[in-house]
Amino acid sequence: MKKKINEIFYSLQGEGCHTGTPAVFIRFSGCNLHCSFCDTQHEEGTPMTNEEIIKEACRYPARMVVLTGGEPALQIDKDLIDRLHREHRYICIETNGTTLLPPGIDWVTCSPKAESTVVIPRINELKVVYTGQDVETLREQLKADHYLLQPCSGQNISETVDYVMQHPHWRLSLQTHKFIGIR
Ligand code: SF4
Questions:
Q1: Which residues touch 156 (CB under 8 Å, ≥6 apart)?
Q2: What CATH fold (topology level) applies to the domain 3-179?
Q3: Domain boundaries, the chain
């Protein structure tokens, strides 16, 4: 089945634990949530087969591939994961956690959104967009290897820094790609 792909591009991972790592981003079109602060244009897209996606993604030298969106979990399948592994790619996903994932993904970043239920059983990094909400309940509910708080569209950086310093089980995540003017 063809996937609707918004874009495939090469850059550095700007956020989270892998900040600064060269990566190919495969942006899937469409999402099942409608967050008011959503800052990605993902609705437009081109239908592509898994083979076409792999061919395009593997044009670049980076080993890391980031499945993002929109919500990539709505479209990815085991065949795509297996094909990327056959090309020796390290597969990361950025998901809202509301849809189960095919097995084999190497690194799961979950950014839960208000009033949605996280159903995925394994999270490597929980990356929460901080708007002053109760993040401790979220942390208790969702087991992860790393807990990151990220300012909302760069608006409340000092508030987020303060919160992390007062609650050091969190780490700060910044959208560093925006600071240095890359995608
Ligand atoms: S879950 Fe992510 S991609 Fe979907 S609407 Fe919310 S911020 Fe945008």
A1: 130, 131, 132
A2: TIM Barrel (3.20.20)
A3: 3-179
